[in-house]
Amino acid sequence: MRSRFEQQLSRLHEDMIAMGDLCEEAIAEAVRALLSANREAAKQVVRGDREVDRMEREIEELCLRLLLQQQPVASDLRHISAALKMITDMERIGDQAADIAEITRHFRLPEDPASERHITKMADAVKSMVDESIDAFVHEDAAKARAVLAADDAVDRLFFKLRRDIIDMISQNPAGGEEAVDLLMVAKYLERIGDHAENIAEWALFTVTGKRPDDAQEAPPEEKGNV
Questions:
Q1: Mean pLDDT by 10 residues, the chain (227 residues)
Q2: Which of 13, 4, 71 is nearest to 207 (CA)?
Q3: What is the pTM of this model?
């Protein structure tokens, strides 16, 4: 029985990695399409989001089978419940990559090399966060999960820097306001992808520590102390 469970758990890991790869590819292709104004490539990203959705359903079904047909111990139960939470964030990452691609279909990139660099840096950073957070889950690596949490701060700084640049861009060229706002939306989608990767890392940490992500918000009564 345990051998069968281990095989299914291994498949869960493989599927999680595959879904993560799809998300990373979607981010890369969406930003590449944006920067090259490749509308056909953008359409491919939007169509590809269906595959991310399909994998979410498959992994959810596998997790439910593991819960119902097997007898997971506490640590296994944490692992499976974390996976169920993580695929929701991964599905949202796919959606937001598709949102970037949708903008590409009517977007003209402002002639601003700095903005292009910031978008590229943000995309590279969030792709790395997605990859590292899933790897932390599969290998139950608490240190790697915490590194992803720290990396989100760098993504936020890039977002705020780009936002300031866009405000300056609009003040200097009000006629280009529509393109600037679209660029800000792209940056916001990337920032949200970073937040979802952070959520995944928090659930990866939960599999190791047993502490839910929201446990840090409010300490249990015995840890608060009494006056």
A1: 79 96 96 91 94 96 86 82 96 96 80 79 96 95 95 93 86 78 91 96 93 58 38
A2: 13
A3: 0.87
